[in-house]
Write a structure and sequence with these properties.
Structural class: mainly beta
Number of helices: 6
Number of strands: 25
Largest sheet: 6 strands, antiparallel
Helix content: under 10%
Distance between the termini: 11 Å
Length: about 400
């Protein structure tokens, strides 16, 4: 039987007029359950115009921040702290401003200088982490690219010195194109929930190579897997340019990849190995597919993976699910893949305004009392919640084979 998803008739969070870092968009939330209670913690993406950093002849920049919220009723209502961001970009333009201290005390390039987007929270070996898609420099009002005629604002705040700097440095190459680089932070939940934001996030470094491809929808499995005779960390990611990756010449569109590395810092280097996990095969995902939130273990070898597909700007982003299975000494493979759109924008408040694209984009999923609770961005401007019975969902996904054909 097809699982029944429950939704609310209104967003749980939306932009706050007058809040300079959140008065335009509040979206794409990550969630995690408190280990000591049923309280749910959320990190959400937000933005607003930032005229104090505007350059002459340019639009207002729109840096992207992370905000913090909590729920004590299993996601029905949320208390958000709009007094200040939980994590904010530096928004520097000079060369000396583009550094930060990493978790080991090293002075390193700060990929999170301009934007900190689309958080995903997960554990690796019982430690809590968050990934964020970052840009070195804030864009202008980036949604103008979808207007007719399109207006490109992505490069407005890339400083001139970047264009003359050495190509030998990966940071410079990524910054010049203002590509998205996924950055890993270690998250201290106790500090976060006590709103000690400055102490809650430890910068680890990039997980993707921005000079190879814009890359997001990145997160790790919680445990190592044996691949090529070695116990390795395993990561999902979605490069925009797939040509440098496994089967890229064949798939030619953004797809879900799985990467393996012996050390986490090796993911953003040639030491990592990559394998295509899934590409577009259904009509509603013709343009791209990407994993939505961190894999959920459902048996000793099997993992539930929520993923999104996009057909075009009019059909928009929709969600479905697949089950992947660990292999003996190899990369995990897709075992079951639902060919149906199970979640998509259909309520009035989920319909687009500034963007032409309908969008229901899940970025968080946790299980409490057998119910899968999901947080999602709607219309690229608001936050919604959904609930579904986990066992019913898994049973339904298992009625499809790895190609999306009905088994029974």
């Amino acid at each position: 039987m097809k699982p029944q998803f429950r939704y609310l008739d209104k967003p749980v969070l939306e932009p706050v007029p007058g809040c300079d870092w959140a008065d335009k968009m509040v979206l794409n939330p990550a969630i995690v359950k408190d280990p000591e209670s049923n309280r749910i913690h959320m990190l959400f993406r937000s933005t607003g115009p930032w005229p104090q950093k505007r350059r002459e002849g340019c639009h207002d920049p729109y840096p992207i921040f992370l905000g913090y919220a909590t729920s004590d009723d299993l996601g029905e209502t949320w208390d958000a702290d709009f007094s200040r961001p939980a994590l904010a970009p530096v928004i520097g333009y000079e060369e000396h401003e583009l550094y930060t201290m990493d978790i080991k005390g090293n002075r390193v390039r700060n990929y999170a200088n301009g934007c900190i987007e689309d958080p995903r929270i997960f554990t690796v070996e019982d430690e809590l982490y968050v990934t964020v898609a970052c840009r070195s420099f804030s864009p202008g009002p980036y949604w103008l690219l979808d207007q007719d005629p399109p207006i490109q604002t992505r490069y407005e705040y890339v400083p001139d010195w970047i264009h003359s700097a050495s190509d030998e440095e990966p940071f410079v190459k990524a910054a010049r194109a203002n590509e998205t680089v996924t950055v890993l932070y270690k998250l201290n939940l106790d500090k976060l929930k006590n709103r000690l934001y400055e102490e809650a996030f430890d910068y680890i470094g990039p997980l993707t190579e921005g000079h190879v491809s814009d890359n997001r929808d990145v997160f790790l499995f919680p445990n190592k897997m044996k691949i090529d005779g070695k116990m390795q960390y395993v990561m999902l990611h979605r490069p925009m340019n797939v040509l440098p990756f496994d089967q890229g010449e064949t798939v030619k569109k953004p797809s879900i990849y799985v990467a393996a590395a012996e050390a986490i810092e090796d993911f953003a280097t040639p030491k990592a190995t990559h394998r295509l996990l899934a590409t577009s095969i259904f009509d509603w995902e013709e343009n791209r597919v990407g994993a939505s939130w961190p894999p959920l273990q459902i048996s000793e070898q099997d993992w539930l993976v929520s993923y999104h597909g996009k057909k075009d700007i009019y059909f928009g982003y929709t969600q479905s699910f697949m089950i992947v299975r660990e292999q003996e000494n190899d990369f995990p493979l897709v075992l079951n893949r639902c060919s149906e759109r199970l979640m998509y924008a259909e309520r009035e408040w989920e319909m687009p305004s500034d963007y032409p694209t309908p969008c229901l984009f899940t970025t968080g999923g946790i299980v409490i009392n057998g119910e899968l609770i999901m947080s999602y961005g709607a219309a690229d401007q608001k936050i919604g919640m959904s609930w579904v019975n986990l066992e019913e969902l898994i049973a339904y996904v298992r009625t499809f084979d790895e190609h999306g054909n009905k088994i029974n």
